[in-house]
Amino acid sequence: MLSPSMKRLVREPFVHFLLIGVALFGLYGGLNDAPDEVSGQNLVITESDVAQLASSFRQVWQRPPTRDELQRLVDKYVQEEILVREALAMGLDTGDAVIRQRLRQKMEFILDGAVASLEPSDQTLREYYRANAERFTTLPKVGFRHVFLGKAMDETTVGSALRALKSGAALEEVGQPTLLPPELGASVRTTVDSNFGAGFFDQLVALPPGDWAGPVESAFGWHLVNVTGKTGGTLPEFELIRDRVEDAWRRDASERLGEEQLLALKSDYRISVPDVDGISR
């Protein structure tokens, strides 16, 4: 028979929480028979560990820690290490997407570190530059002025507008009003087509520069166009873009080496996966 004080204690929510916690710890302990090296092992904090804690403190606060501050850092480190080890022993990391992502990122960082230590020779970079010339070639550009004729046009309108422009008439005096920019300096395909519609750039590069021509069709209607300049794609000299070539080489080398290292790691595993075609969606 429970006394009144015991009955009140049993009804306390905190006691319920505590009992549930004890039960869960017991369950995890039973399901995860952790080896000595994971749970219950010696916890040794080295002088190097303490020095690292002091260094981290110094970087943040721009001064060395006092003895009491350093002791608190060590105590906190011990507490953290114990909790992490116990969490691992209980398998709390299993199935945690955030932890899996962080571990994957750390492994990728370790694998990428090998590339950072590589120093490609000048010959290696020159060969890479020649083999990947299209990656370093500048995009063609075109500059132009235009007059908007409207969504529909006829030979009379085109002829009248051409004569006026060749006679020196101002652009705003010819054609119809439009919100399109009246002139673009040397611009790449994406800039031109984003303003005038897909295919407009290709029509312009086919026109001779220096004179009014057209009509040329855009996504909005018809235009008379004066191409003010054109530049084809050019490959800069290696010496001018050596740093850019090396950056590209390192990115490719990192990707290639990462794939090779992953294949090497995979060879240590017997991998079994189901046929995805047999899994209903």
Strand content: 5-15%
Beta strands, count: 4
Major pleated sheet: 4 strands, antiparallel
Element pattern in H and E: HHHHHHHEHEHHEEH
List keywords for this structure.
11 helices, 4 strands, elongated, 3 domains, alpha+beta, disordered N terminus, 281 residues, single chain, Chitinase A, domain 3
Strand and helix layout:
Elements: H1 4-11, H2 13-31, H3 47-61, H4 67-89, H5 97-116, H6 122-131, H7 133-136, E1 141-150, H8 155-166, E2 183-187, H9 189-196, H10 200-205, E3 212-217, E4 222-231, H11 242-266
Antiparallel strand pairs: 1-2, 1-4, 3-4
Helix pairs in contact: 5-11, 6-11
Describe the structure.
- By secondary structure, the chain is an alpha+beta fold.
- It folds into three domains: 81 residues, no CATH class; 53 residues, no CATH class; 94 residues, Roll (Chitinase A, domain 3), CATH 3.10.50.
- 53% of the residues lie in helices and 11% in strands.
- The chain has eleven helices and four strands, in the order αααααααβαβααββα.
- Strands 2-1-4-3 form a four-stranded antiparallel sheet.
Could you provide a short overview of the structure?
This protein is of the alpha+beta class and 281 residues long.
